[in-house]
Amino acid sequence: MNKIRWGILSTANIAQTELIPAIFRAKNAEVIAIASRGSKVYQVALDLNIPKAYENYDELLEDENIDAVYIPLPNHLHKEWVFKAAKQGKHVLCEKPVSLTAEEAHEMVQICKEYNVKFMEAFMYQFHPQHARVKEIISSGEIGEVKMIRSSHSFYFQDRDGDIRMNKDMGGGSVYDVGCYSIHAIRSVLQTEPIKVHVYAKIDRDTNVDTSAFAYMELENGVTALVDCSFDMVERNEYEIIGTQGSIKVPYAFRPDRNGGGGHVIVKIGNKLREEIFYGDIYCLEVEHFSQAILEDFQPSYSGESAVNNMRVINAFYESIKTGQSVNVKR
After folding, report:
1. What is the model's pLDDT at position 331?
2. Same domain for 109 and 130?
3. Which positions ≥6 away from 15 have C-beta within 8 Å?
4. Neighbour-count burial for 156-188, b at 16+ CB within 10 Å, e otherwise
5. Are residues 175 and 72 in the same domain?
6. How confident is the model at residue 96 (pLDDT cuts 50, 70, 90)?
7. Carries keyword Transmembrane (predicted)?
8. Do 117 and 130 fall into the same domain?
9. Domain identity same for 107 and 49
10. 255 DSSP 8-state letter
11. pLDDT(203) > 80
């Protein structure tokens, strides 16, 4: 077998516009089935040239020809369907955030281990080559000792009525939706873990969902981290690392695909600026990496344990928002 056969659990917009086209572009993957609750799935399958369509998720999971599934369901349904997929022997790529709590995430990782299937949370941005370059520059010492990192991810969210991102019970909120990227990037780029957070949020009166959040984090390595995320601001998806001798700014950190796939790494030393540009197809790179992990039986570079740690920080964010106090990240 030289291609992983994928099934898609849901006709969610991200599946139709991003993941399914990426699987078609991937060298080691193909889409053979999609499922949804209802007959609309047949038209979607026809439009996207997918051979099989199922009117419920269980039927897709029972298809013995499917090797792996992508789960872009609402956040509160991730655990249920990861469990069901694992028990059917399907490898799982689960959309972020992987769950609503770190405890759920841990259970999901454990069930996948029990049934010997690969598992990965779908932070596609991390596969873009710009981030590896940032790590190289930091390691080289060019910007000196890292003292601070800040990350911003926002977009102006229109047409909110009825959207699951405004439903608290379904895992709505700016931290779950976009703040999770900044948390992940800080942990990934600096290879360290947050130990304490203090977060302020703006809460929508009607839904009780956080529409913006502003966070201070203390990291294990002594670096200070600042995060802001929002449904109420213009689109931004960036991070900046500040050292004793210079800085690195990445203005298209999470969605370089919105910039033609181009990721910019801007290094400032004194008054001198240097800009390096890297290209990458983030969704395709994600699919190819996970598919190759299945084909060659190795663990994905982004582990289940790291996904659990990301959720621990998200949980601490929400506890701090609720209490108004600094919160230690649980281990």
Report:
1. 84
2. no
3. 8, 34, 70, 72
4. ebeeeeeeebbbeebbbbbbbbbbbbbbbbbbb
5. no
6. very high
7. no
8. no
9. yes
10. -
11. yes
